[in-house]
Amino acid sequence: MQATTPLGELLASPRYLPRLTENDTKPVERALAGATLFDDGVQLDGAVVEAAYAVREPEVLDHLREQRIPVLIDPQSLRLTTPGYLTNRRLVALPYLPASPMTPASTATDREHFVADALRFQQKAGASWYLTPSVPLRDEEGWSELHHDLTARTAVANGREVDSRELVALVAPGTAALRDPHALASRLLDLPVAAVYTQPLSLDPVHDSVDKLARAWRFCHEFEEANLPVIAGRVGAFGLVLQALGVAAFDSGIGVAERYSWADQVRPPRDKKDEKASGGAGKRIYVEQLLTTLPVKIVEGLLRLEGVRGRLVCNLGCCRQAGHVGLADRRGEHYLFSRTHEVEQLRAQPTRSMRLHEVHQQLLAARDLASVARRGLRDLGDLGALPPSFGHLETWLSLLARAEQVTAASGLPQ
Ligand SMILES: [Zn+2]
């Protein structure tokens, strides 16, 4: 059985949990093992494993277990609310699939079976804690009640249908729910829930406005205020900004553009052809110094720039031996090492105001480097990928300034 780490203990300080899918087997194996016999592997705090990957019983799960890395299995229940999953070749392998989508019209029996089966699957896959198999909090009538009902049923089934584990409540707000987190938090407080996993149905931290990101943060903040630590879903480097503002943990996929759109996820496959056709163009590398995940072609351009290359050195286990050579082939390992490293640095700051100061400084340094990088990229001409605007760095700085009196907290002159 998986040794379980109490959630309250783990989430008492900043954590990063990689979100693992079937595309991540090699980078995760290599990062856990270390680049050479003399290099330690990456020290993960935990991982979120998507059910469609876990159901294939990948060896990665055994290795996480051997290294006593706690695992949360995402039942991917948000996708089981429209008929699309019935023809999705990855999802149809899940043993708890409802015969028809989970909606407010689903019967009590269907709900009960769904919840129990989803928990059994998580237990079998070695989950350290259970994630409630809940539905999107859509604006339309009935979804909020269905969400509460499934959450409550999960709490009842925990310890009855499966061994008892701490519960993480999946809360996936649409526009209306995002504006009213207080009601959600107070209802959750009545249930035996140890933490909350938040996933706004539409969130794009690199392109969204300050207002929208502020709402996403305030949503998390409401639960943290109620002593329910939060794991913020699929936020990428924006997770550091959230952590500076008191959010416990975040997850994000390895080397993907960090954004989430429930509507895109449940779109019929025939509308997704264009994305597949782009092939390798989607490969991305995380650049810690710029707090941005960039297309490989852009990073290769940056490494050609005299004034930038020297500032993009990575001394972590992924790159220590090879430098920039072959970085594109190591991008997955580099992502895991970099993210883990930056959250470790944040964790080393003992107070909240010091964390705020740390992230503020990182953003200022990234913004400086980004303006040099942008000029250099322009001079290089066409790189076969759109040069980034890096506008999110300014947006995130504005959010920090708005959420807290940054200058006062960091002791900088006004
Ligand atoms: Zn690296």
Please give a structural write-up.
α10 runs antiparallel to α16 and α16 (352-380) packs antiparallel against α17. The protein contains 18 helices and twelve strands. The chain starts with 6 loop residues before the first helix and ends with a helix. With 414 residues, it is α/β, with parallel strands linked by helices. A hairpin with a 4-residue loop joins β11 (284-287) and β12. Residues 273-280 and 409-414 have low confidence and may be disordered. The chain has two domains: 7-272, TIM Barrel; 282-410, no CATH class. The radius of gyration is 21 Å and the shape is globular. The longest helix is centred in the last third of the chain and has 29 residues, at 352-380. The strands form three sheets. Strands 3-2-1-9-8-6-5-4 form an eight-stranded parallel β-sheet. The structure holds zinc ion. Residues 314, 316, 318-319, 334, 337 line the site of zinc ion.
Q: How are the SSEs ordered, and which strands pair?
A:
Layout lengths: L6 H4 L4 E6 L4 H9 L13 E4 H4 L4 H8 L4 E4 L33 H17 L5 E2 L11 H15 L9 E5 L3 H5 L1 H8 L6 E4 L3 E2 L6 H16 L4 E3 L5 H7 L4 E5 L6 E2 H4 L7 H5 L6 E4 L4 E4 H7 L3 H4 L21 H17 L4 H29 L10 H13 L2 H5 L4
Helix pairs in contact: 2-4, 2-15, 5-6, 9-17, 10-16, 16-17
Zinc ion binds next to α15.
Which class do the helix and strand fractions yield? alpha/beta
**Helix-strand pattern, N to C?**
HEHEHHEHEHEHHEEHEHEEHHEEHHHHHH
The overall number of domains is 2
CATH class of the largest domain: Alpha Beta
Q: Largest beta sheet, briefly?
A: 8 strands, parallel
Q: By CATH's scheme, which homologous superfamily of the largest domain applies?
A: Queuine tRNA-ribosyltransferase-like
Count of strand segments? 12
The CATH architecture of the largest domain can be named as Alpha-Beta Barrel
Reported by name, the CATH topology of the largest domain is TIM Barrel
Distance between the termini: 54 Å
Residue-averaged pLDDT: 91
Low-pLDDT stretches are 273-280, 409-414
- Strand sequence of the main sheet, in spatial order? 3-2-1-9-8-6-5-4
What is the assembly state of the chains in this entry?
single chain
How many DSSP helices? Answer: 18
